[in-house]
Write a structure and sequence with these properties.
alpha+beta
Length: 390
């Protein structure tokens, strides 16, 4: 058989052979470069280190958010405590209903046992076995009365069963609501912890030089806050003066030549009763200086800001609400220029912080996590407003 000629065209080979060492090295190198390029493209770029000013702004913001979240936590905890007491009352009602059901069941069982002992005897047989017709009729009347009482016992039993079922349903709903509140409380707690951890992390990365710069920035911020507060106080004083002058123009002139007695009590004055209470408030607050801030704490070993103010005024016999948002509604509002020792000063637009005024522009407060109860200028933070609790 003749050999067939191959019709395949020979491949033209140009350049270096593919299996030479040089080509193998080049291929591996290109693959490495490609891989590295891909990794570099997908890897997150290194973020530049934030400036001290940026750290200050971020930390302040985190602490404020944590302060607001703390007040939310306090309010939720207060509601949860109320719900828990309500659930306890409902469970007590459930227990009482169960006792009533058992008592009705026992009463019903007494009649059932009596019927069992008497046996199921028809009226004809009962008449036949009776000693006399009179005895039969007496027994019939007794059974009629027994039947009436038994019916009452059945109705009482059914009534108590319905009441018990209603109480159990109420308890189930109350427990579900309490569980939801507790879950929300737990989430609020975690929210505060996350924000505080983020603030601590930012501060821990600062060098000694950066911390010194941060302290200088804090001082500058306090001075700026003081300037704004003093300007606001002047505006309030000028407005009060205008109002007083307007009232004087509207009043008729005094007659009779009397000396006149000034009975007005300006917003900057008060009676001795308030001063005595304020002295007790400040004495208590001074005794707490040095104790740590712990969010959600109300003493005696640690406090958050509203926990301290509530405890201090409680020492003077005045019960304040738990949160800053509720405390600001107590008593009467006073201007910054008219502050007296014992007054409460609130800060930030969201009213997330409070301190106890002690005079000379100073207050005692529980500042923030990582700090202890201390005296500090009221101008350190932007003032929202002030109240005189009693």
């Amino acid at each position: 058989m003749p050999t067939l000629a191959s019709h395949r065209k020979s491949r033209t080979r140009t350049g270096v052979r593919a299996n030479t060492p040089a080509v193998g090295f080049t291929t591996a190198a290109l693959a490495s470069v490609t891989l590295l390029s891909t990794q570099s493209a997908t890897a997150a770029p290194t973020e530049p280190k934030p400036s001290v000013e940026e750290v200050q702004k971020k930390v302040d913001d985190l602490y404020r958010q944590a302060g607001t979240a703390t007040q939310q936590y306090n309010k939720a905890k207060e509601a949860t405590d109320t719900q828990r007491k309500s659930v306890e009352r409902v469970l007590d009602d459930v227990a009482k209903s169960a006792d009533n059901v058992n008592e009705a069941r026992r009463s019903l069982g007494t009649y059932a046992a009596a019927q069992y002992r008497a046996g199921a005897v028809g009226p004809t047989a009962a008449l036949m076995f009776a000693d006399s017709p009179e005895s039969y009729f007496e027994q019939t009347q007794l059974m009629d009365r027994l039947t009436d009482r038994q019916q009452e016992a059945v109705e009482d039993f059914q009534k108590e069963q319905r009441s018990a079922a209603k109480q159990r349903a109420k308890a189930t709903k109350s427990l579900e609501t309490l569980t939801e509140s507790q879950d929300s409380l737990k989430a609020g707690k975690q929210k505060v912890q996350n924000k505080l951890a983020a603030a601590r992390s930012l501060l821990s990365e600062l060098t000694a030089e950066e911390k010194a710069r941060l302290a200088a920035l804090e001082l500058k911020k306090e001075q700026e806050a003081r300037r704004k507060a003093e300007a606001k106080a002047k505006e309030e004083a000028a407005e009060r003066k205008r109002q007083e002058e307007a009232r004087e123009k509207e009043q008729p002139p005094a007659t009779g030549g009397g000396t006149g007695t000034d009975t007005g009590t300006g917003s900057g004055t008060t009676d001795g009763t308030y001063a005595a209470k304020a002295e007790k408030v400040l004495a208590f607050a001074r005794d707490q200086i040095g104790k740590p801030y712990v969010w959600g704490a109300t003493g005696p070993s640690s406090y958050d800001c509203s926990g301290l103010t509530a405890a201090a005024w409680k020492a003077a016999g005045v019960q304040l609400p738990r949160t800053t948002w509720d405390q600001v509604k107590v008593g009467k509002r006073v201007a910054t220029a008219d502050l007296l020792p014992g007054d409460l000063v609130f800060f930030y637009d969201d009213i997330s912080h409070v301190g106890i005024y002690k005079g000379d522009g100073k207050m005692i407060h529980a500042p923030k996590p990582g700090a202890n109860v201390r005296e500090e200028s009221i101008y350190y933070m932007p003032i929202y407003g002030s109240v005189r609790p009693a």
